[in-house]
UniProtKB/TrEMBL annotation:
Keyword hit for Hydrolase: yes
Segments forming a coiled coil: none
SUPFAM superfamilies from the UniProt entry: (Trans)glycosidases (SSF51445), Galactose-binding domain-like (SSF49785)
Keywords: Glycosidase, Hydrolase
InterPro entries associated with the record: B-gal_1-like, BetaGal1-like_ABD1, BetaGal_gal-bd, Galactose-bd-like_sf, GH, Gly_Hdrlase_35_cat, Glycoside_Hdrlase_35
Organism of derivation: Candidatus Enterococcus courvalinii
Residues of the Glycoside hydrolase 35 catalytic domain: 8-326
Domain Beta-galactosidase 1-like first all-beta: 374-486
Full protein name: Beta-galactosidase
Length: 588
């Protein structure tokens, strides 16, 4: 197969319109990949696009993971088996409403770090990551008998910087492994196209937008004319829905309006639906939106109001878009989609529970320092950190506050909750009483997700935990123990559920399920407070009473026939006596 870019895209000498859909393998269970891609084809698409999240594949410096949900080559194998063309976006930064835009948090251990720049430590880290990742992707190129047509250099870089030297570095690194065309994707207006593109390097520029194709492609036309180019128009991200944040209503987009906007794109050029199926932010990988003075962490469901739901169900929007594709691209092949199955797994009593304070020293080894350290400085990337110090003498403290803490802090004195602070409250002074001669001050700090887009992406604002300290009156409190709580399987395995349950404290709850068959299901979290759920040691994501969702999707991939273990870490002191599953999601 031969692929060329002239005034149009050409495959084996024939002009072709790329009709693509974004599918993030890392947000969808591997047992669902084939069905998702089959439904992509059934809607009329001939191509699949995916990001590659650096922080998932290199969670620790020099430690790589390409197994399970991170098995990108298995995902690409299925796409090729089905005959889909492939677009891969392995740029170091992906945005994607993903923690730190896909950048690994261990970059933040360098106090001078400047991401997406010429910073030597950043460039070296990218180079070393690419040396492992790109040889896995290169065999899929159309020039080597595969279906990979396009590879992205950087992601919406014109919305962040204008460093052409950095972009050229990425081009050079990619061209060590790829000889298929490279692309950039930016917003559809002059300033970002100017800042984020490399026309003199022969890099195809594409635009991202969700409406008004004529206006956005006009900017792309102006860009091409200015640089003496005649290239196909492509919307690399057609935003057919939107993501959601905690405490806000679910965002919906009218199916018919969406489909008519798709029609306008197809009349002018090629399209990549962002998203085709959104999936789930498993683990602690959700991103966070910059809301100015505050931040808005995204919810666990990445449903995105896409043509397929979070669990893969075709929607009204799916069929509306399919109809438009049939009308505008008569050569597109469409068919009936495949429907996923969900199941009710029953209700189960919680028989074991234990307070975090009872098992803290067993599951986490403290890092001791005279002042508080941010999460990254203690070798932790995600999750929670518990800070602990001792205060002497019975007395009244008129003023206490945390300085420069992120993101949500619960204050405990002698294992009793005295304050919770988040967003605008964080850093406010409060008073408390010391009732013993020696008092234990504990602060449970939750990293709720790093920014994935905007000016706060710079390293200084991305470090989590208590970055400056905790003050009594006008002085900083000294002598701290730091307990990392990333809650990986090996840490969960150390929890001793025979120890004390302390009411109204952060606690672990354990349930065992005997399953004769596995299935896709939803865990009802509507009576819980705030926390995370683990199935057989794997983190299913966060829940929170704030909504707008009150359940967690748990695919068949994470269950097994026989005994299954569910562990809930509930931070708000809400007692959990039983759990219930559902065939459908539970919304606010």
């Amino acid at each position: 197969m031969n692929f060329e870019i002239k005034e149009e895209f050409y495959v084996d000498g024939q002009p072709i319109k790329l009709i693509s859909g974004a599918v993030h393998y890392f947000r969808i269970a591997p047992t669902h990949w084939r069905q998702t891609l089959q439904n992509l084809q059934a809607m009329g698409c001939n191509c699949v696009e995916t990001y590659v999240p650096w922080n998932l594949h290199e969670p620790e410096k020099g430690t790589f993971d390409f197994t399970g949900i991170a098995d990108v080559t298995k995902f690409l194998d299925i796409a090729e088996e089905l005959g889909l063309y492939i677009i891969v976006r392995p740029s170091p930064y992906i945005c994607a409403e993903w923690d730190f835009g896909g950048l690994p948090a261990w970059l933040l251990t360098d106090p001078s770090m400047r991401i997406r720049s010429q910073h030597p430590g950043y460039l070296q880290a990218v180079k070393e990551y690419y040396q492992v990742l790109l040889p896995k992707l290169a065999p899929y190129q159309v020039t080597r008998g595969g279906n990979l047509l396009l590879v992205q250099v950087e992601n919406e870089y014109g919305s962040y910087g204008e460093d052409k030297t950095y972009l050229k570095f990425l081009v050079a690194e990619l061209q060590r492994y790829f000889d298929v065309p490279l692309v950039t994707s930016d917003g559809g207006w002059a300033e970002v196209l100017e800042a984020g593109t490399l026309p003199q390097e022969g890099i195809l520029a594409t635009a991202n937008f969700g409406s008004d194709a004529n206006e956005n492609f006009k900017w792309l036309q102006n860009y091409q004319e200015k640089n003496g180019l005649k290239e196909p128009y492509m919307c690399m991200e057609f935003w057919d829905g939107w993501f959601n944040s905690w405490g806000k209503p679910i965002i919906r987009r009218d199916p018919q309006e969406t489909a008519e906007e798709v029609r306008q794109v197809l009349k002018k050029g090629s399209i990549n639906f962002y998203m085709f199926q959104g999936g789930t932010n498993f683990g602690f990988y959700n991103g966070c939106s910059d809301a100015g003075a505050t931040n808005e962490p995204q919810i666990t469901s990445y449903d995105y109001d896409a043509p397929l739901t979070e669990w893969g169900m075709p929607t009204e929007k799916y069929f509306a878009i399919q109809k438009v594709i049939q009308e505008e691209v008569p050569t597109a092949k469409t068919s009936k989609p495949v429907y996923p199955k969900t199941t009710y797994l029953g209700s189960y009593a919680v028989k074991e529970s234990v307070s975090l304070f009872s098992v803290l020293e067993e599951i986490s080894e403290p890092i001791i320092n005279d002042y508080t350290l941010p999460m990254e400085k203690i070798g932790q990337n995600l999750g929670y950190t518990l800070y602990r110090s001792q205060l002497l003498n019975k007395r009244h403290i008129a003023k206490m506050k945390v300085v420069d803490g992120l993101d949500r802090v619960q204050f405990f004195m002698n294992q009793q909750l005295i304050a919770t602070q988040y967003q605008a409250e964080l850093g406010q002074e409060f008073s408390c009483d010391l009732t013993q001669e020696k008092n234990e001050l504990s602060l449970l700090v939750e990293n709720m997700g790093r920014n994935n887009y905007g000016p706060k992406l710079v390293a200084d604002s991305q470090r989590k935990g208590i970055r400056s300290g905790v003050m009594e009156d006008i002085h900083y409190i000294s002598d701290w123990e730091h307990y990392p709580l990333e809650l990986r399987p090996e840490q969960l395995a150390k929890i001793d559920f025979t120890k004390e349950t302390i009411a109204k404290t952060p606690s672990f709850y354990k349930i065992e399920l005997l399953l004769e068959e596995v299935g896709n299901t939803f865990l009802d979290c509507s009576t819980f407070g705030k926390g995370v759920v683990f199935v057989n040691g794997e983190n299913m994501g966060r829940y929170w009473q704030e909504g707008p969702t009150h359940s967690l999707f748990i695919p068949d991939f994470f269950w097994k026939k026989g005994i299954n273990e569910v562990i809930i870490f509930e931070t708000e002191g809400v007692p959990i006596h039983e759990i219930h599953f559902s065939e459908t999601p539970i919304m606010a």
